[in-house]
Write a structure and sequence with these properties.
Length: 389
């Protein structure tokens, strides 16, 4: 089940890349890069051993915004394409190897100079050869499933060795997690130093014919958004219990939204989520009180959406107003710092696709896929349908 859910994430992200490349229609050759990166991370929860990791990655990116009338001028003229990564860990008996493919956006600075720098962003799917298994591999508390999400944020500086060749070095931050769909899921976070080469086979781009630029419309009015969501997770701590059942979560949200500039939209509102896992626990425990209300989380939400024609990249921060079961049953078994953070803070990050209208329409319908957290800990994977008017 969790493999199918994460596969849908890859389909959505790949669709964003396809939309981007089709809209630009560039005949220039892509820019290629190859990198080696090395870093360490903590072995398991409570242990001090540091495990070295070695990654090799390849990227093929197309430059956007070549023509002044390009749609991507509004987005900082990123290079857009795909990255592939392979890596091994010094403790291969526990972690094995990892392979990943993910869409990538890269923002360039001083690209026409001898020295410059870039920022690279990417997210997609990774495959781990040695995930947790209670019989065969019980020591891997970081990665609980073969298929996980990978997210990369990197900052690099480069110097030109020749007109078509640049030497690159920088720092990358990698995050691997399955959004609490399969326990254990501490997640693997790694900072790495990278070295590599960038090859640009054609630095002179063809002259394009003039065309009228279609600007995204400005809209300063307040709009309303109604959102229905369905999620899945295991009722568990970060590492235990394992092999438990997966439960459904149902959420309803109502928001007021407003466009800022052309490609940014903010929202504020209220969301209520019913956790069937909490309700089932109280049912078998024969808890007193109104179980439906105790199993419902209510929070105030403030969010931002980065608008990309048929798609939107959403980041929400939630202030939890009411969460009776979680605070009473789960938080009292955690540290003071975790109790404070998870009592009041949540987050939501993901993509949505506009199936009626587009990201800039006054009336639009979207389908989305998101990862939710309790504090900084993964909570559940969410599918959503929303209507804005």
């Amino acid at each position: 089940m969790h493999h199918r859910l994460l596969f849908i994430i890859a389909v959505l992200i790949a669709s964003v890349q396809l939309q981007a490349q089709q809209s630009e229609k560039i005949t220039a050759q892509p820019v290629f890069s190859a990198d080696y990166s090395m870093g360490t991370f903590q072995h398991t929860e409570g242990e001090r051993e540091r495990i070295a990791s070695h990654f090799v990655s390849f990227s093929a990116l197309l430059k956007t915004g070549i023509h002044p009338q390009s749609f991507f001028v509004d987005y900082g003229k990123p290079r857009i394409g795909v990255s592939a990564l392979g890596g091994v860990f010094s403790n291969r008996a526990v972690y094995g190897s990892v392979w990943a493919v993910y869409p990538t956006w890269q923002f360039e600075f001083f690209s026409d100079k001898q020295v410059g720098w870039n920022i690279k962003l990417g997210t997609g799917l990774a495959y781990f050869s040695r995930p947790f298994d209670k019989f065969d591999n019980p020591s891997n508390f970081l990665i609980g499933s073969s298929i996980t999400n990978i997210t990369e944020i990197a900052a690099n500086a480069w110097v030109a060795l020749a007109p078509q060749l640049q030497l690159q070095t920088g720092v990358s931050l990698y995050h691997f997690s399955n959004a609490h769909v399969r326990i254990p899921n501490i997640g693997l976070n790694k900072a790495a130093i990278r070295f590599g080469l960038i090859y640009t086979p054609n630095r002179e781009f063809p002259r394009l014919s003039a065309r009228a630029r279609i600007l995204t419309p400005r809209d300063s009015a307040f709009h309303r958004e109604l959102q229905f969501s369905f999620g899945r997770h295991e009722l568990a701590f970060t590492t235990l219990p394992v092999d438990g059942p997966s439960y459904s979560i149902f959420k309803l949200g109502y928001f007021s939204t407003k466009r800022l500039q052309r490609i940014h939209e903010i929202k504020i509102g209220l969301a209520a989520a019913f956790y069937n896992s909490y309700f089932t626990y109280m049912k078998f425990d024969q808890s007193d009180g109104i179980r439906f209300l105790q199993a419902t989380q209510i929070k105030l939400v403030a969010g931002h959406e980065f608008l990309i024609r048929r798609f939107g990249f959403t980041t929400d921060i939630g202030i939890i107003v009411s969460d009776p079961f979680y605070r009473k049953t789960i938080l009292n078994k955690q540290s003071f710092g975790d109790q404070w953070l998870k009592s009041f803070l949540s987050a939501r990050l993901g993509l949505q696709c506009y199936v009626f209208g587009n990201a800039f329409s006054a009336q639009k319908v979207a389908l989305g896929l998101f990862a939710n957290t309790h504090g900084t800990t993964a909570d559940y994977l969410e599918f959503s349908a929303s209507f804005e008017w």
